[in-house]
Amino acid sequence: MAIAGRKALVRVSGAPVAISNEATTTDAGRRIFTITNAAYRVWDRNAAVSVTRSPDGTTFTAVPATEYTVNRLAGTVTFAAAQAAGVQIRVSTSYLPLATAAEAKEFSYTFTGNNLDASTLGSAFVLRQQGQRDITGSLSMWTTADRTFEDALTADQPVVLEFYNDSGASADFRVWALVNSDEISAAVDGLAETAVEWEGTQDAEGRITSLV
Amino acid sequence: MAIAGKSMAVRVATTAAGTYTSVAEIKEASMSHAGNNQDISTFGSAWVLRLQGLKDATYSLSGFYNPTDTNGQVAIRNAWLNDTPLFVQFLPNGTNGFRQEVRVSSYEVSASADGAQEVSIELEGTGAIVAV
C-alpha cells in the first residue's frame, strides 16, 4: 500500500548537550547496549564517549575503548565479547537533540554504490564489485526564520537528519549530512522557499548512516 | 501475443538458488541488455564493422516506497548497505524471463506533501544472465 507523502517526517539535529552516566539497556546477547533514554540516542561526532561498567550497579569503572565500538547515530555501545549477566553499562558524552525540520514539504535521498568493473580476460559478461557507497539528498521547505542549515553550512559542520516514512512509526534511518547548498528563493506571486542539498559524511568511527 | 505490463514480476533473493520474493509496490520496471559493441571498421570499410564486447545488463525499478517489504525493497537496500550478494529475476509474464546477480547502483526515496512516497532503484548486473 502506498504511503502518503504527507505522513513523512524529517528531523534535524541541534546543538550538543552534555550527558553524564546515562543508563543503557542491553540486547539479549548482552553485547549491544543502547542508551535507555530515546532522546539521547544521537551523539555529537566531536564529543568523547566515556563508557563505565559495573557488575552489580554499585561501583562503576572505566571500560577500555579497545573492548567496544560506538554507533553515534544509534546511541549504542557494542562489545566484542558478551558481558556477564547483570552487568550495567553507563555512557557519558554529548547528545544532539532532534527537532522537526521546520516547514519541510518535500525530500529525496539516494543511496549510491559506485560499482566497479571487475571483468577480466575471458569474461563474457561484465563483472562488478561495489566500490564506494554514498548518500545524497535534498530537502525543500517553506522559508522560515530557522537558520539551522545556513548555520551548518557556514560552520562547515554536518547535521544529523532523521527520516521517517511515517511520523507515527519508527524512523527509517539517520545520516550525517554535510550541507553543500542552501538556496532561498521568492517570487512576487508565491511563498518564499528554501532548498537544501546535502551529502553524507563520516563520523569518527567512519559511519555515514545507521538504520534505525 | 502481447504481454500486459501488469503481468510483470521482479523478484530478488540473497542467493542464486534461494527463495525469490517479489519486490512489492513496483509499478514500472525495465531491463536493458547491452552488447557493448566495438567499432572495428578499418580503412576500406564501406560499412561499419562491429565486434561484440562484454555483455551487460542493467535494471530499473520504480514504484511506491514500502519500508516493510523485508525481502524486497529492504533486501535491496541492505545489499547496498552491506555489500552483500543480491540476485534478481526479471519475469515479463510473471513466470519466464531472466536471472542475474546484481549490484545496487542507486536507491532513491522521495516524498512530497502532496503525493505518495516513491522509490527508484537502479541495479547493475555482474556475471552471466540466465534464462528462467
Explained architecture:
The complex is a heterodimer of chains A (212) and B (132). In chain A, 4% of the residues lie in helices and 49% in strands. Chain A is built from 1 helix and 15 strands, in the order E-E-E-E-E-E-E-E-E-E-E-H-E-E-E-E. Chain A has one helix spanning 148-155, and strands at residues 9-13, 17-26, 32-35, 50-54, 61-62, 68-71, 76-79, 88-95, 98-100, 104-117, 128-142, 159-164, 173-185, 193-200, 209-211. Chain A is globular and about 65 Å long. The mean pLDDT of chain A is 95. Chain B has 132 residues and is mainly beta. Chain B contains 1 helix and 10 strands. In chain B, strands 1, 2, 3, 6, 7, 8, 9 and 10 form an 8-stranded antiparallel β-sheet that branches. Chain B has a two-stranded antiparallel sheet with strand order 4-5. Chain B is elongated, with a radius of gyration of 17 Å.
Helix content of chain A: under 10%
Q: For the terminal residues of chain B, how far apart are their CA atoms?
A: 19 Å
Q: Which chains share the greatest interface? A: A-B, 36 and 35 residues
SSE arrangement of chain A, N to C: EEEEEEEEEEEHEEEE
